[in-house]
Each structure stands twice: as structure tokens, then as C-alpha cells.
Structure prediction request, 208 residues.
Amino acid sequence: MQFKQRRWYVVASVLVFLVMSVGISGYLWGRSFFSPPTPSQDHIVKAHQSPEATPTLNMAANAHLIIAKIGVDAPVEPVQVQADGSLGVPTRNQWEDVGWYQKGPIPGQRGSAVIDGHLDRPGATPAVFWRLHEMSVGDIVTIEDANGHTLHFQVTKIESYPPNNAPTTQIFGNSSGTFLNLITCAGQWIPQQHQTSLRLVVYTTLVQ
Prediction:
């Protein structure tokens, strides 16, 4: 898949915040209008309850996302929605780190934890999720924290969505199990809209 030089913005934020918008990329130009769905208090309680004997990962520092199949061993930075409505991005190393949406569940807690990452960087050179499209159902995704706790998630589904038709409630709000969803961009670059044509979501479920 070929990508042009200007396609270096954080695609995960576009997935979330252009779902209901039209026109150019809100993240790239700082004109985002939408944030992840705001969960109800009931959902917040359910999402942060984990009846399984799963260790609580320390996501505050030195957690890593590991995907052996595609050569990813990336530091995880907690991020949240910024003042302009866009999903935060890694700041220590924006091209090689990934961002965990800290208003959602910690990976391993019941609910849908979400991690985003860049596809590429200026010059169209690969960034952390350059090879995310190579993932297949059954592949393993691992989160490891600084305390040595490790959780494994198995890919259950891979979907690509047009930017105006991404199911943000499913991506961020599914609390029927223990999930970790990875998001980045895909498809063709649309110069007039300053965005790609698709958003890639890799859905994974905790492996006990």
C-alpha cells in the first residue's frame, strides 16, 4: 500500500472524531469536532470491574505493547481527549510509541481498552502501526507493564470502516467482555479531504 508524504497525522484520532463529520481531517488541521462516546456511570462501573483473577497493569509508566508478528515493541503513553476534542497522541516519541485512551478501561479490565498509533511519519516512512494491516485472526497481542505483569490478547476480528461510518460505541463502549482494540488508518489518501479513505480496527480479546 502506497502512502503520500502528507499522510503523517495520527489516524486513530481521525477514526474517532470524523465519524460524524465531513470534509477534511479534523485532527490534521486541529478542527476535530467529536470525542469518544461518553460512557454512562453504569458503564464506567462495569468497565472497571474485573471478576477474573487478572493482574491490574500499571499503565502510568514503562508499559509496552508487543506484537511479535509485525515487529512492534512500543512504549505505551496514557492519552486523553484534548481541548480541541481530538484524541491525544504520544508526545515522548510520537512515531514509535502508542497511546492508550486512559478514560477507558485499563487493558485487562472489563470493557474496551483502546490503543492508537501512527501509520507513518513525514516522508511517508513507517511509524509504529505501519504493518498493523498484516494482522490476522488468532494472532497474539501482548501488554507488559514495568512490574512484570503480562496480559495476552487474541485477535478476533479486523475491520476497516469509512470515516463517516465507524462504530465508535462498539470500539470504545463494548463492555460484554475484556477487549483491547487497536486503531490506525488505512486505504487510499484523499488529497482534497486530507485524510485516508478507511480506518483500520483490530479487535482483540483477553486470553486467560
In short: The longest helix spans residues 11-17. Residues 1-35, 40-51 have pLDDT under 50 and may be disordered. The CA atoms of residues 183 and 201 lie 5 Å apart.
